[in-house]
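pipeline: protein-struct stage 2 | run 1193 | Serine/threonine-protein kinase
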Amino acid sequence: MSVRTKPLQPLNSGQMNARNASNVTPIKLKKSTKDFYEHQQQQQQQQQKKKKKEKLSALCKTPPSVVRTRNGRDYRRGLFLGEGGFARCFQMKDSNGQIYAAKTVAKASIKNEKTKTKLLSEIKIHKSLKHSNIVNFIDCFEDDVNVYILLEICPNQSLMELLKARKRLTEPEVRLFMVQIIGAVKYLHERRVIHRDLKLGNIFFDPNMNLKIGDFGLASVLESFDSRKFTICGTPNYIAPEVLGGKANGGHSFEVDIWAIGIMMYALLIGKPPFQAKDVQIIYERIKKSEYSFPIDKPISAEAKVLIQDLLDVNPLRRPTIDEILSYDWFKGAFPDKTQETTLTKEPEGLTMISKNQSAMNFKNMKVNCGIYTPKTKNPVEILKTDLQSEESQMVLPRSLSPNDTKFKYKEVDPTMLTKKRFQFNSNFSNSVLDLDKTCHTTYVNMCKLETLVDSKLDTMTLPSCENPTLISKWVDYSNKYGFSYQLNNNDIGVLFNDGNTILKMTNNEKFLELLLHEQEGWTCIENSIYNAPSKCKKQLEIVDFFAKYMNSNLSKVSDVEERKEIVFLRRYTRTSDFIMFEMTNGSFQFNFKDHHKLVVSKNGLAITHISPTRITQTHPLILILKQGNFPSVSIPDCMEKIEIIKQAIREKAFV
């Protein structure tokens, strides 16, 4: 839901939950007593259905004036924006004055695991998306009563409100709208996401009058590009015929979104959806038979009719693909460079004055802006089933979703790559990668236990072996453009790219590793030759080489070169004003402090390594350092304070 931005105003809960009393329809007496009771029963059933439908959103109480989240953020409730069948939408304002839209779902409406899984799936799918024509997901959180999905606010309403105000739109305007919608749908389909509820009311104008698709409540991720879905869902006027057929029709796939694009194009040009009727069953019958027409009193171009007819083909396999739509002649007509805010109330001026050359240029630029020409650098989204389960029975959102730290809880996976040759790791490596949060927890618990054993005798303890760990020797944070690059002390070079994937180029080796997260296998490492790299990796390898040259030319090592004992790469990093924290896939935690002393906790918290500014490295059992209060060879300033900082930093990762 979205409206024009207005000053935030508190809402009275009584006003929000007030509803008009339902008028009972008088029952006409029948000649037969049986007929009378049958009619009365039907009336009661209809009223019960209506009440049941209303209850879901009615259960969503007005949020408190200030909503406090688990991570300490406060949001002040503002204007009521609207409601759907399952949720209500409010403005929310953060401490910096930034205004968002909060989709609010009552916990009372989440009555079973199926409903809960559906809500979490919506959150995870939407959060995984980042596109200029998709409503931006900000955060999700909950209180005792509601679950809140915080979204970018689109203050200029939706295409539905625009059509209500204007009645019909011009073809140049609709061309521009279609390109923006198609750009977003192309992005979704490349990630195996089907929206399944594309309609005018779910497409909003942002502050710059760009269109953005929202509401992923019915969205679904296909297991593969040729798999199908069978759930009958959607909004009646927009449902594709194969959806109505269910399993009997073999299910549905990406083509349902293509159909919806055709419905929206027709509605914008004609003024109403093609199959509209008062009775839903009549709508469905018309859809199945493709019974619609182009009114004579509302003329549109022949090119527009051709495209609409192809988009609304009953056979989904005959509909144009998302890439084919923009090649239709209709897009060769007048094309504006942008949408003006005056469009919301009246027809823009000068649309017929746009030259053919200028239209072609505007069309091309708009496709670029919508990512239609952008190379495919990311792969389909794979949702982790483990993340769809709450960690606490009284909570709806798992900790992996709230607060907003899910970057590493799901990845974008290329299913075709998973059949290629894989690099084999030892079992300890695989286990540590599969559950980083568990490693953080185990390390923190062990460090706490060691503190209780400081007064014990060393000869009664089993001390860990203390070889020097693999660690990060150089690093460059270029995440504002590419990602985080690092060089290990075995000279391997890695880049953790902004999309979450990693390339690790091993020194003195013609191979490199492409590191992907797969639900069944944890981290899958695909071994490739640098001389026969997949096309999508070539650009990434160039970036790795660029960083390697930069680090070798400009940065000094923090430790001496060691032989490769294991394959290690960076899992996650955290920067603060006092230190940078590296979490490695071998279970070690490296802390580079601002005074140039480095500490590495390894062996699940049982061992600790110190690297001095002069590159002197020493590794000892942590219990020994705790008993002595410092390292035996080269002391470290504020040693115990640094160890406490490390413990607390790991604790935060373990319990967030």
